Amino acid sequence: MKMGKYEWSTLIVLIYMLPYLYFGMAQDRAHHSFLGYVLAIVATGALAYASRRFGSVYAVPIGNLLSLGISYYFVRMVGEGYWESYFKPLSPQLTVIIFSVLLLIPQAIVLLVTHFAVRRKSRVL
């Protein structure tokens, strides 16, 4: 069974819906490790590549907004007490928003590189 553009877009958005930023912040808080942030960068970069490769670039902003919303929700549900002063001087909610904006930078780079690679490949063929 071959998947079409709509199916790929839906799959990419569903994978984007994981709360990458919440996982990164929780990993940082619990283990003082940046591994969660690195995994978020790698995962969203791979999703940005897949969305460009399969022609569903609109899945990137939709997926990022959904992931931000879900991460923000989980951070709010855990509450200020858990995060205490770990992310001071910023609140945990503001930290999620700032990290979300910063997470767009590697995705934009991946999208641009993939765009030019696809264009170059189509010109050669």
Explain this structure:
- With 125 residues, the protein is mainly alpha-helical.
- It contains six helices and no strands.
- The longest helix is centred in the last third of the chain and has 33 residues, at 92-124.
Structure characteristics:
mainly alpha, 6 helices
Task: Report, as a whole number of angstroms, the end-to-end distance.
Answer: 27 Å
Parts with pLDDT < 50 across at least 5 consecutive residues: none
Share of helical residues: over 70%
Number of strand segments: 0
Helix-strand category: mainly alpha
Shape summary: elongated
Oligomer: single chain
**Rg over C-alpha atoms, rounded to the nearest angstrom:** 16 Å
Estimate the mean pLDDT confidence.
89
Number of helices: 6
**Secondary-structure element string:** HHHHHH
Count of distinct structural domains:
1
The main sheet comes to:
none
Strand content: under 5%
Question: How would the blueprint of this fold be written?
Answer:
Blueprint: H1 5-16, H2 20-31, H3 35-53, H4 59-78, H5 80-83, H6 92-124
Helix pairs in contact: 1-3, 1-4, 2-3, 2-4, 3-6, 4-6
Short description:
With 125 residues, this protein is mainly alpha-helical. Helix content is 80%, strand content 0%. The relative contact order is 0.16.
